[in-house]
Amino acid sequence: MARVRVDKDTCIACGVCWALAPDVFELDPATGKTRIREPYVKSDGEKESIGEIPDDLVEAVKNAASSCPTGSIVVE
Fold it and tell me: What is the pLDDT of residue 46?
């Protein structure tokens, strides 16, 4: 399992991560920013969304993180 964080303060909701890893990321209608989807979300607040993803999704999430124009996604 890997940990992933989305910084909603810097996210511009461009949708790149939704396109590259749709099983993990989605639009948060409350904030208009990206959030981690169920069942992977562990914490979702106004400023940050944190989740744990299985190994088979790590490459897609890393690709989304490296493609994020604002660097708002971090994989740990």
Answer: 87
Asked whether 12 and 63 are in contact (CB, 8 A), the reply is no
Q: How far apart are CA 25 and CA 37, in angstroms?
A: 5
* pLDDT single digits (tens) 22-57: 999 999 998 899 999 999 999 998 899 999 999 999
Neighbouring C-beta atoms of residue 40, cutoff 10 Å: 19
What is the H or E stretch that residue 65 is in? helix 58-67
Q: Which CATH class is domain 2-51+60-69?
A: alpha beta
Q: Are 73 and 3 in contact (CB under 8 A)?
A: no
Helices then strands (H, E): number in the chain?
2, 6
